[in-house]
Amino acid sequence: MINKLTINIESTHSQFSLAINQCISFSGIVGIFGHSGSGKTTLLRSIAGLNQQTTGAITFNGNVLLDSKNKQNIKAENRNISMVFQEPRLFPHLSVEENLDFAIKRCRHSQLDKADIIELTSITSLLNKSIRQLSGGEQQKVALARAILSEPKLLLLDEPLSALDRKSKKELISLLRTVHKKLKLPMIYVSHSSEELQQLAEKLMVIEQGKVIKVGNIHEVFHQLNNTQLIKQQTSLTVMIEGVNEQHGLVKLRVAEQHIFMSLEQLTDDDINTMMQLSSLRCFIFASDISISIIEPKSSSIVNQLCAEIKNISQERSQVLITMKCQQQEFFASISTYSLAKLSLSINQNVYIQFKASAVRTLTI
Fold first, then answer.
1. Which residues in the chain belong to E strands, given as ranges?
2. What is the pTM of this model?
3. What stretches in the chain show pLDDT beneath 70?
4. C-alpha 20, offset from chain centre
């Protein structure tokens, strides 16, 4: 069964108004993207039952959580929804294990094995520690374990990695993917970081000024956002991993029937070891890192060279965004109007695109 969340709500406070009408199917982790103040947290709090200003209707798998017309509003503690916040919100006077036990006691029909969740979230060594002894990343692991042990039907994550360093972010992203895969737990992940969402989400909803402006497949939505000011223009990719060439410091990746290379410099030894066990990788290339040639670059130090067809040319002031198709994959290049005129580029023209191995980026594997 595919889990479904139906939302048709409004929430107004101060000078801000949220109005959302969406049906969300959880075939994978659902991401919500938007800048600060766009309404992401208000939406999550409304779903969780923590926002008393919300009116309208919310149902999850057919169960009514809110129906203001019929004066139905299930209390937050009875919605069977857990929320992990930007700050862990653990009980500082309790040990790690005591924090976990608190969640278990509140679960009416506990079915998950505590030891299994402790192992799954890699917090065995932390159980006897005080919350004050933990790093930020460790606290978020405990917060996640506690949320899971309350056995929710839906897990909401409100920018849980925003205060963490890059290493901790990578660990938590890997952990969230593992939790989702093993427990089949529906998740909504809110962030203003396109890098984080690129790694976790299958579907993306974009909120701006309290309204949904885009929704769809993660790669497709990011490509649509290239024509806005919300992200740095980029090509968003899922690629197949074909091998590691440590001698030359490169990872060989397959895009459709062509190959590209990514530099190993951005990866740790642990990343490389993990990569050898994976089949695919999420990555991105900034449009400013892709160049265009109208003749085949046979003598070039740039390792990535692909043949593509121009599908769209979008100009804004002195910059131009070129959309190209390489087999079934779209690529985006940002060039100057001077280069556009110099090369006489036009739609349906065949060109060659080039980018360095270091231009292929990934937050984590």
1. 4-13, 16-25, 30-33, 54-60, 63-67, 72-73, 81-84, 154-158, 187-191, 203-208, 211-217, 234-245, 250-255, 258-263, 280-286, 291-293, 304-316, 319-326, 329-336, 350-355
2. 0.93
3. 364-365
4. 20
Please say whether the beta carbons of 308 and 331 come within 8 A.
Answer: yes
Helices (H), 254-317: 269-275
What's residue 280's pLDDT? Answer: 86
Amino acid at 256: A
Between CA 331 and CA 311 the distance in angstroms is: 10
The DSSP output letter for 266 is: G
Structure confidence at residue 277 (pLDDT): 75
Alpha helices by DSSP H, 5-135? 40-48, 96-106, 114-120
If you average pLDDT over every residue of the chain, what do you get? 93
Give me the pLDDT at residue 267, please.
82
b (16+ CB within 10 A) / e for 292-304:
beeeeeeeeeebb
Helix (H, G, I), strand (E, B) or coil at 194: helix
Residue 347 pLDDT: 98
pLDDT of residue 185: 94
Are the beta carbons of 134 and 142 closer than 8 angstroms?
Answer: yes
Instruction: Kindly list the structural domains of the chain, giving each domain's residue range(s) and its CATH number in brackets, ordered by start.
Output: 4-227 (3.40.50.300), 234-359 (2.40.50.100)
